[in-house]
């Protein structure tokens, strides 16, 4: 191989590592804070049952910025935007560690989410431009691995850092990785801005972003923000009106952020709605389970983090069975059945008790991880399977946005339900807190069960996986 080719291959490999590390940072911070929430609450003098805003702020900011990420990278260049994203992420991490109260921490998480939102989309775009088409799938498969590893080690690492140091180190560990990423970006990522990029649909973006933020804040306002019912109602009405205005706006524009014509594809519309409503339930589990283990069952932060490992391990192991099952039984049967299993697995946590043996809790968490992973794989692939050409990129971005929106709303909804049951049962004793958690798991499980009806609308003939590998490689899940 000529020397020039060896140099090019080395640069391509380093680009993959750079994007993979960025994706790892993003997914790690989505889970690492969950086991540290009780320690943060104690430090701030807050109730650990009302800390969901720390999670909601991060995921909602990501959902809000994902629609703009592709245009920003085209307009200003991948290298410049990627470096700005890592810098924002590091600055946000430092601000999180320096926070003196909950409001400051939530604001810092917004800054961190602004950086995190750009890491994967811009990195994926850089890889797409650098790699030939025949090698792109292999490259994205490599990048997807940290997306599985991050959630697996995040809760345990967060718990360990709380025990051996303080919760501040949950954020401080991002600094050396981020600085290394900035240096590597200078050497291994090309800029290639495109001056001919079409004008950004700013009006449409503002309507879409305002709608998402208003609805999420309304849900979170029922518990975390302490808003009155009238304020929540006003936010909901404004949010829904803003989304309706975007829909009308997009219908008459030649180049909207997300064209209404996307929803003429049945698998996409059903897949997106199913993603939104089923994830409203399942997305709360990484938030609720560590709190349950620490506050009601007496686990230490590190023990609570280690209990999340079975979820991630089962999630990774079951992925190889998804494609054969879908090919044999079709998407409708698999998704309807599996959505019900996810809901039942969540509701089963309503029977958790301190007297139960450890192996039963591990088995319970592992079963939830397995069916939840199957759910993500099937939902993501059916959503994207019938999109071709220019619709594929737009549909993929829309799916990413819906996933992050559902995560923020799911945690906010779980926080609101938990706050309601805490008011009913009280939280003066561990047993009262346990009853609140049990009732919350039952409600969120039932919410997930209800979403099975959405997937029943799929045609029984939809069974051949056209883009399963692409969706999984892109790290959707």
TrEMBL record:
It is a multi-pass membrane protein. The chain crosses the membrane at residues 54-74, 81-100, 106-127, 139-161, 167-188, 200-219, 231-250, 262-282, 302-322, 334-352, 358-378, 398-425, 437-458. Residues 15-463 form the Major facilitator superfamily (MFS) profile domain. It comes from the Bacteria. It is found in: Cell membrane. Keywords: Cell membrane, Membrane, Transmembrane, Transmembrane helix, Transport. Pfam families: MFS_1. The keyword Transmembrane applies. InterPro entries: EmrB-like, MFS, MFS_dom, MFS_trans_sf. This is Multidrug transporter subunit MdtD. It comes from Polaromonas aquatica.
